[in-house]
Amino acid sequence: MFPEFFSFQLADSIRIALPLAHVEKIIQIPQKQICPLPGIAPYWAGVANYQGSLLWILDSEQFFNLIQERSFKKTNWTVIVVTFQTSEIRRRIAISVKALNGIISVDLTASSHSSFFPLLPQFQSLFSSSIIYENELLLVLETEALFTSLSTPNLSFIDV
């Protein structure tokens, strides 16, 4: 059996696969329920109440430099609630997505790998591979690397 991933779109041509084990839930959050916070990195849309806890909302298009400014015209945000368990704590954030593709099973060793990387080079370390899947480029996200980068002082002011 091959590893399972949840596939989603960030932009028209950017498809990402997230390990299914780290996907807690997919939800829609109305813009009015997201509270922006001053003084944090601009790629954080803000926080929302999720099951009685604060959930940090990552504006993925802004995080990956796909847009310059956040669009406040959104009425709803489609987000994937992503969790990552360390030995000390369970971490959770929500990643905004443009479209949902669904669950896929991928043999990463037999897949055609691509040297093409559509994002800025600084983001390459967040992905374990870029492969051709169903005739499209698929970037395989490393959940631990994402959480580590979001906790790095030069990228953010919070520890998620």
UniProtKB/TrEMBL annotation:
Pfam family, one: CheW
Gene3D superfamilies, per database record: CheA-289, Domain 4, SH3 Domains
Signal sequence extent: none
Occurrences of domain CheW-like (ranges): 2-152
GO biological process: chemotaxis; signal transduction
InterPro entries xrefs: CheW, CheW-like_dom_sf, CheW-lke_dom
SUPFAM superfamilies linked to this entry: CheW-like
Cellular component per GO, a single term: cytosol
Protein's recorded name: CheW-like domain-containing protein
Organism: Aphanothece hegewaldii CCALA 016
